[in-house]
Amino acid sequence: MKTFLLLLLPFYLIADNVSLLNLQTTKLNQDFIEPQMVLIKAGSFYFGYDKGELDERPEQNIEIKKDFYIAKYEVTFDEYDKYCEDRGILKPKDNGWGRGNRPVIYVSYEDAKDYARWLSQKSGKRYRLPTEMEWEYALKGETRGKYHFGDNIKKLKQYAWYDKNSFLLGISSRYFGPQIVGQKEPNHNGIYDMHGNVWEWVDSDYTLDHGSKLILDKNFKVLKGGCWASKAWYLRSSKREAEYKDYTSASDGFRLVRDID
């Protein structure tokens, strides 16, 4: 259901030689990497956007009743490759753009769920995908504009990789494709790349709107945030995409939340 064209294979390989120290830090050993987390306190926010598309309406004041942790960064190849090695399964491809601290791509909703279960077993903590409400709350908090920083589209390049600075430059550019996480400015909660870079799976069924909450097919799940090839409209805080839960592409990844004991 993406409305943009993804060119899946660049004509040359981009070596990922950049090592960002302390990007994944809370626990590092031979078997798994735990992500850095940000505490999100319980509170209320406006879910959806009345000036957006039909499935974003109506805008509703929602209460998030429990504190939770959310990852500062999207899950990277470094993290996900540990899972693949431990499970003895095929690693997802990177299209030659590089692995390391770039967000993992070609992962489905089901892949993301399996990874969260595996990391929970390894760490003894409760990791999972965020719900759509948790994800949107962590991004925008009390803000009600198009983006967490407001409506000024000129500021978007400060916070996001999207078509203007990653896709439209073309495949000969080092900035074609998903980029190393954490290079843009974070939101007010200290979370990176929630606008752009890769679409992020959330653990919510796709509904036709926020009012009726009508679900046509429980196999369709929600993606949030837009990606490196998206136009600015698709990076809006409340924008939602529906994809089949087994779908994978060069534009889709995820981040985790962790429940508080």
Sheet of most strands: 4 strands, antiparallel
Estimate the global geometry from the Cα principal axes. Answer: globular
Strand content: 15-25%
Uncertain regions: pLDDT < 50 for 5+ in a row? 3-28
Structure class:
alpha+beta
What is the distance, rounded to the nearest whole angstrom, between the alpha carbons of the first and last residues?
A: 37 Å
Question: What's the number of helices?
Answer: 5
Q: What is the CA-atom radius of gyration, in angstroms?
A: 17 Å
Share in helix = 10-25%
Oligomer: single chain
Kindly state the number of beta strands. 12
- Biggest sheet strand order reads 3-6-12-7
**Series of secondary-structure elements, N-terminal to C-terminal:** EEEEEEHHEHHHEEEEE
Mean pLDDT across residues: 91
Keywords:
261 residues; four-stranded antiparallel sheet; four-stranded mixed sheet; 5 helices; 12 strands; 17% helix
In short:
The chain is of the alpha+beta class and 261 residues long. The protein has helices spanning 77-87, 109-123, 132-140, 156-159, 163-167, and strands at 27-28, 33-34, 37-40, 43-47, 60-64, 68-71, 127-128, 199-205, 220-224, 240-244, 252-253, 257-258.
Description:
The chain has helices at 77-87, 109-123, 132-140, 156-159, 163-167, and strands at residues 27-28, 33-34, 37-40, 43-47, 60-64, 68-71, 127-128, 199-205, 220-224, 240-244, 252-253, 257-258. The protein has five helices and twelve strands. 17% of the residues lie in helices and 17% in strands. It has 261 residues and is α+β, with helices and mostly antiparallel strands. The protein is globular, with a radius of gyration of 17 Å. A four-stranded antiparallel beta sheet has the order 3-6-12-7. A four-stranded mixed beta sheet has the order 10-9-8-11. Strands 1-2 form a two-stranded antiparallel sheet. The longest helix has 15 residues, at 109-123.
